[in-house]
Specification:
Shape: globular
Number of helices: 4
Order of helices and strands: EHEEHEEEHEH
CATH superfamily: SPOUT methyltransferase, trefoil knot domain
CATH class: Alpha Beta
Strand order of the largest sheet: 3-2-1-6-4-7-5
CATH architecture: 3-Layer(aba) Sandwich
Helix content: 25-40%
CATH topology: Alpha/beta knot
Number of domains: 1
Radius of gyration: 15 Å
Number of strands: 7
Strand content: 15-25%
Structural class: alpha/beta
């Protein structure tokens, strides 16, 4: 399938969440991972050592990330927000950078202004950032595989 994606956290709160997200990103085939406003430190929950297998980028601010992002990639914020689309009906772009905020603060106003779109997971309240990232990556993978399978079956008819 064409395209690629990366996932990262702005101002991550705990090392365990960061490590769990990186491990899951590696499992779901992310092409890169990143932090904004925080640095990666050894994560005991990253048992696959994802940073050894996929690029890890560090950005100091949302503006730094925006000025160094890959060409023609869409920046998708994952946030509970009135402008956010429901993940259940969200169509993932071919090339995407997904940005999650820390559980206690969410995405900063600067990051919200940089994101081309926002998506939210339909839950009753805020969930753990690593869990949110895992759900998002599963959704992307499942929808893209289903679309790819449909295009193959239509081509063979």
């Amino acid at each position: 399938m064409r395209g690629f994606f990366g996932i990262g956290i702005e101002n991550g709160k705990t090392v365990e969440n960061l490590g769990t997200l990186w491990r899951t990103a590696h499992a779901f085939g992310a092409d890169f991972i990143f932090t904004i406003g925080g640095r990666y430190h050894h994560q005991p929950s990253d048992t696959t050592k994802a940073w050894r297998h996929i690029p890890l980028f560090h950005y100091t601010t949302p503006e730094d990330m925006f000025s160094h992002k890959p060409v023609e990639i869409e920046t998708i914020g994952v946030e509970i927000h009135k402008a956010a689309r429901n993940l259940m009906t969200f169509t993932h772009p071919e090339r995407a950078m997904y940005v999650l905020g820390a559980e206690d603060k969410g995405l900063s106003p600067a990051m919200l202004s940089i994101c081309s779109r926002l998506v939210q997971i339909p839950t009753s309240y805020c969930i753990n950032v690593a869990v949110a990232g895992s759900i998002l990556m599963y959704d992307r993978t499942a929808k893209r595989r289903a679309a790819h399978s449909m295009s193959i079956s239509h081509a063979t008819r």
